[in-house]
Prior knowledge:
This protein is α/β, with parallel strands linked by helices. The protein has one domain: 3-Layer(aba) Sandwich (Rossmann fold). It has helices spanning 19-27, 44-56, 76-84, 95-102, 106-116, 126-130, 164-173; strands at residues 5-8, 31-35, 61-64, 87-90, 120-124, 134-136, 143-145, 153-156, 179-183, 187-191, 197-201, 205-209, 212-214. The longest helix is centred in the first third of the chain and has 13 residues, at 44-56.
Amino acid sequence: MTGPLALIGGTEWTDGCDFDAQLLALSGGTEVTLLPGAAAFENPAKAIARAEGWFAALGATVSVVPVYRRAESMDPVAIDAVRRARLIYLADGSAAHLRSVLKDTPLVDALVAAWDDGAVLAASAQAATALCDVMVDPRGGAFTVGLGVITWLTVIPRYDEWSREKAQRTVRMAPASLVVAGIDDRTALIRSPNNEWSVAGAGKVTLFREHKLVGLDALT
């Protein structure tokens, strides 16, 4: 059994994201290992500063793994930091860039190994959909190949900002066996160590399977 999982709809580390205290408690520690790579071209320093301020208020520190290019995902220091982490948090940014940096690398292998050992894995918005084997392309809502860490569902980030038509098109294209999770901004879909699913934060999560609305029990 892998560790806890938190898939966040977007605008992480801001008011409404009260679930981060729960994630810290699940990790059993006070350190967050932050991977800001998805934000490489979107002022990662700003995202890092927001994370540091947010978690400081929760009594935790942030350790940054500065991997922004594919070559850096081969760095033994970065790999070791991720492998030893108890709460791994992937920042929002570009899903396509994050995939190009991490796909089939020792760093993503270390992330999966840490998660398999019980570490908390959290990812926001574009990083959340990039973790999936079937990734949602934010430009048009079509599917493409992701990192393959999560195979049983895919994520539509910031679902509350999508038009009904765009969301319906994405759901119709989904394979019947795939759960599509539309996650609102500042909202998390969380799986506990006991494989119990819950929703926390400011918004809601809308789930589809076989092109129909389903409840959280569809994930168990």
